[in-house]
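Protocol step 4 of 6: structure prediction from sequence.
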Amino acid sequence: MPQGQDLKSKEKILVVDDTPENVSLLTKILSNHGYKVRVALSGKLALQSVQANPVDLILLDIKMPDMDGYEVCRQLKSLEKICNIPVIFISALDATFDKVNAFTLGAVDYITKPIEPLEVLVRIEHQLALRQFQLQLQTQNTQLQLLLSTTQAISSAADVEEALEVILIALCQNLGWEFGEAWMPSSEGTVLEYRRCWYGDVRFDEFRRQSEAFRFSLGEGLPGRVWVSQQVEWIADMTQENSTVFLRTQIATQAGLKGVLGIPIAFDHQVLAILIFFHKQEMTPDERSLQLVNAVATQLGSMIQRKKAEEVLRQQAARERLIAEVTQQIRQSLNLEEILDATVNSIRRCLLSDRVAIYQLGANNNGTFVAESVGKKYPQMLGKTVNPSWIQECFSTFSQGFPIVLSDVEKFNFTDDGIKFFQRYQVKAVVAMPVLKEERLWGLLIAHQCAAPRDWQAFEVDLLSQLANQVAIAIHQSQLYQYVQSANRELRQLANLDGLTQIANRRRFDECLDASWKRLRREQAPLSLILLDVDFFKRYNDAYGHLEGDDCLRQVASAIKSVVRRPADLVARYGGEEFAVILPNTDIEGAVFVAETIRQAISNLAIPHSGSKVCSYVTVSLGVAGSVPNLDLLPQHLINAADAALYAAKKEGRDRVARV
């Protein structure tokens, strides 16, 4: 489990020569100057050695049995993995042809025997320096190409997680890793959670699926250790480590993985993500790979931080748009049902949740879901009156204005009734935000995730909190509107009612007669009017007093109303002891019948009247007029006709009905 091992040790050199004396001399010269020397006594052994474990430079003799140096060089340059290792020929052959042949095959230098130690060292150091410079240029070029392609891809990524997937693909494809995964700190910052992965072999599907269930705390497993150290760490062969070093050894081994590398992506000493890469072979990264990885990780940290900042700004803009949208809806509509429906639809669209509902508390601890927006696959709650035990369990929390935020309801210790409620409505994760009206709990604004558990983000909870406040404002505004509407209705009623008799007053009579006249003029239908007067009412007041007179008028009005019951008809106090009855769609004969019925109903009251000249009880005289309204006549014509009929009834002896 190397971490920050010494990568500055002297380079490795392979000496290929079949003469032991030459091998011994070169080994001594090189070892004395700190080089790590390996030896191959034949061309075949040299190829096997360098393929198994590459070196930094090869010193190659030409004349060897079985395979000469030229053939070794030719085969070496044909193999992609080792073709860039510099080769220096050391040979007694001094002909121009031999040197040209060597350089043609790809050698970088040619030293003739007998050798001069100082010359050999200088030539080797020169070639190693060139090689190092070449590798640095390749590393920088690879790094720049990787950063350029990654930067472009990250810029077009929709969010941080998509950007991480872009990074995984780029690093796996450029560095030859077979499986890459990204872990990010949870919203609470307590554990690392599996976010994205990339691989090209479907045989890794099961490893990916099982890995998604893992969580790593600080210092736990390879991701947790890299989280703490903020340093690159690798395990050459995880199959040789115990499970405490790499917690997923068993499932990784089943997937055929061995080598693993952990890379922190950090910005300003804060870990943004941990990238883990796997290989099927045992793996010890070389200096070039580590330099590239560290350089890329440093650059990616700032890119990811910028992407996170962009995401925060997008979330803030979306939140502000939604709040503005709901606020505008509240301003434009005083219909609470419309406002609540629009609110839940907007929230579900913004949060991409499976259900958003508003629950209103009622009497006896029951409540009703008064608004809901839900996906087609899930059961509806709208209109259901329920008493979920989990709400009662959390009632104290809600009453104090605090929400309940659960990423996985199965991990919360609910009663059996609460568990059944969530199962019935397929709820996996929930945010329940209290809606307080005048500091009292009115209900809840609830968001559900039904497809799977969900880690609610802080901005999402904040958004629901702000919208719960807007809902409270809408409720208060709607109730005020309803109160005003009710007050206005009462005022209109008072303005149209006679205070004594509680029937329509003269103002209401005039409005109704005018409206009925216009309507029936269009329909060419009959309109009748009855005017009636309490006989000798002044004498009644003189005899019994005004209080008794008021009570008499109330009884007369009640008797008239008991007869006239059609919705379109109107009974009104016309003035003093006079009353009027408007009878739309009624001809004169029908009106006379109604008038006679009214006269009899009042007579049946048997209200004593000692001052009457026609009867010992209160009586009324009634005048009836009827007409089919037309453009040549006005409503006043009907009033004048009914008044004339009333005059005739009085003149004929009172306590009777007269018509014109």
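Step 5 (inspection) to follow. The first helix runs from residue 20 to 32.
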